[in-house]
Amino acid sequence: MISKRIKIDDLIEIIRQGGRVKTGVDVYNDQGVLLLERDVVIKTVKTLELLQEKGINALPLDGGSQSGIWDAQGNQVSISKDGAIGIETKGDKKTAPVGALGAIEKRLREIEALKSIAAEKYDHAKENIKQVLGQIRETGGEFDYDEVESHVSELVEFLTVTENPFSYLTKEIFTYDDYLYNHSVNVCAIGTAVVNRFNTNFSAVINDHLNAGAPGTYDPFVKKADNEKDSYKCYHMDEIREISMGFFLHDIGKVMVPDEVLNKSGKLTPKEFNLVKRHSHDFGAEILETNRLKNAFIRNIVKYHHAPLYAGEKRGYPEDRHPGDLPIYVKIAKLADIYDAMTSKRCYKEAFNQISVVTDIFRQYAKKDTMLQYVLHAFVKSIGIYPPGSIVFLRNGQMAYVLESAGPLVIPFTDTGGKTLQEKPDPMDMGDKKMKDGLRIDNRRSVKTPLEVHNLLPAYLKPKTT
Q: Which of 26, 41, 92, 314 could form a disulfide with 88 if both were Cys (CB 3.0 to 4.6 A apart)?
């Protein structure tokens, strides 16, 4: 039974000081969309602020032993009937079951809970894009837009509430049979994470200027001040949903490209390549027109997600708009599209290493123009320099698997001689300043792909092959 409802403003102050919150109750919005899983431990202010934006001003606590509020030291925070907050010290009866765990163990539990939610929403979205493309084939171009919108809205709710949603998606590196479906969901997930981060960061830039009262310089890699007044937003939530729809439907025109061309294992002829290029500005735009979809966000993404991002970029198409005239969300769509295509198995290539792809994208687009720099910053911060699922070497010779880009959080899976460990070791936070030098990431060694080290990976780290 739910015992109390706690104001989010009060919880924000506790978490800002290093505390934790676990509701023990699933939290839904007015439309019945799940915003917060009952087992998730909240440890960031941003999560609560996003819930507030969605109209949630208080969180329920079920009163059970596995729910509660804890301070930075793991002491139980008590809430009296009149709303006063107090701390139960070590001598009190109730101590925090979550606070008693190590920080890494707590984070692992959060990741597992979020992965479960992400997998369910991912599968729903994937089935939906299958239906969409099937409908287009059967009808010659028409599909149920409302059905797509409901599925994407559900996915977006998760992607914008979660701190780092990309960490919880499982990459398929062994098969390509469902590539088009997986790619549609992945670009939506990656793109939404990036546009959400860009929206936060760039809006902060504008607010810095507004608050300062005069133009000044701003470095997007420097943390913003806590005392600013946020009166400007680049994109509002309803616009982000429409942008996410565009990400989800960006490759819809590929259904009109013959399978023998789309899935050709060898090099495409010039004629075949020109046919593939038509999937965006020609076939995709035609499908939107058939369905009378005039939404500018969706149309721009579908038509221009392969367009040049800076003057002089080669192989971009179509070229009927200057790169400076491309909307920010279109540039984000292109980066998300490139990243997922390069890190996925295709009929003509294996999946590339995620770390190498992030590095290559950064080198390709860095310092081309100011706005693209902000987009690139949001992309790198969302994906991570060490994306989840990538393989790194430690300075002592061990190989480790990246569980989460924040930190990053890694788990070693070989000994210093390169043999698979027989026992599951504890994960390590590379962001820990107390970490021994020998256990830090060795950037001098060539990176490996999960496929290259698949035989060395223990069962609990191996990606599914079916």
A: 92
